[in-house]
Fold this protein.
Amino acid sequence: MSGQKIVVLGTGGTIAGTSARAGDNIGYTAAQVGVEHLLQAVPALQALTDCHLHTEQVAQIDSKDMDAPVWRALALRCAHHLQETDVRAIVITHGTDTLEETAWFLDQVLAADKPVVLTCAMRPATALTPDGPQNLLDAVAVALTPGAGGVVAVAAGEVHGARWVQKVHPYRVNAFSSGDIGPLGFVEEGRVRLTRAWPKNQPSALSGKALAAIENIVDAAQWPRVEILMSHAGASGAVVNALVRDGVQGLVVACTGNGTIHQALETPLVRAQASGVRVVRSTRCPEGQVLPKPGDVLPDSFGLSPVKARITLMLDLLGQGAD
Ligand code: SIN
């Protein structure tokens, strides 16, 4: 053994899912198998490296139920391990459904110059051909790649950066995309072929401030309340007014096209912003980003998808509260 560790943090998901009927790819229960067992089922993993594979079960959930307290626990465990000199990298097993959100959350709060690699599966561990074992192997290969760093996602032989990764398909095994920017690289028989540089996270004002603010949270109610709304044909402002009355602090709008909003929704949103609610425009288009124009009243999300814009706004509000 090299004396170095790769820390594998388990959070659940389909990769840890089982079905009563062997081979059932959709009628299964996520988050059943512990991370230790997931690793034991892939003996080739230890053959890849002389690093010790240290496992921790941080959560055991279907990632549709992901929430800020689990993100907090995960971020604090990552921050703890990243500062240990004998830790080479972190691998996180996760459900596919909110993987992009967790990746972005960690990207925003960690100063991850070492690799933090999220991986997952579309088929449960009991499938006839589960994709989890290969994804785990590929994730560890990425974690071991010299020069690797930052928060990335690995699935179906592709490496995606936290900023762009998005689940784009509810069933197929290659369910992730980085949109028009494309994957960061590919994993081919244990070797990584990059298409651009690793997204190494340098310590930033946001990451330090956000992590400190997160550490101080003792009650889930302390997380800023940020909701996502969609502009669509026939939209009404009733939901905006109800949320403002209910004390919402931030609203992200999944706008049509280049950040446009149905007039019935726009008027109450502008009013909400004037009353102190933070409003951010993203686009419901799966690719591309809102291009700002002179005179925009509601700010745009700097290219972030609605779910990622929500996280950035939540962390921003949290940081402001900590000032
Ligand atoms: C989940 O996101 O936890 C369930 C679905 C999946 O992992 O594919």
